[in-house]
Amino acid sequence: MSSPEIATAGDSGNDRDMLAGQTAGIVVGNHDEELQSLKNTKFSRIYFADAHYAAGIIEGLRRWGLLKADQA
Fold this sequence. Notes:
Blueprint: E1 7-10, H1 16-19, E2 24-27, E3 46-48, H2 53-63
Parallel strand pairs: 1-2, 2-3
C-alpha cells in the first residue's frame, strides 16, 4: 500500500531505506554519492532533485504534486 500524500527526503546513505519505502521519495541535489545506486532502479517513487537542501525538498514536493507552484 502506498501513501500518496506522504513524502520522505534525504541526502545520505542512512536515508536509503526510508527513501525506498512506499512514500514519494526525494533525494536532494547535494546528496552523497552512495544514493546514486537508487537512480534508474526499481524504485520509481524516488525523485532526484537538482536543487540543494530545502530547495530540493520543495522541488520534489512540486514534482509529486504535494505542493502547488504558488506555495512555499
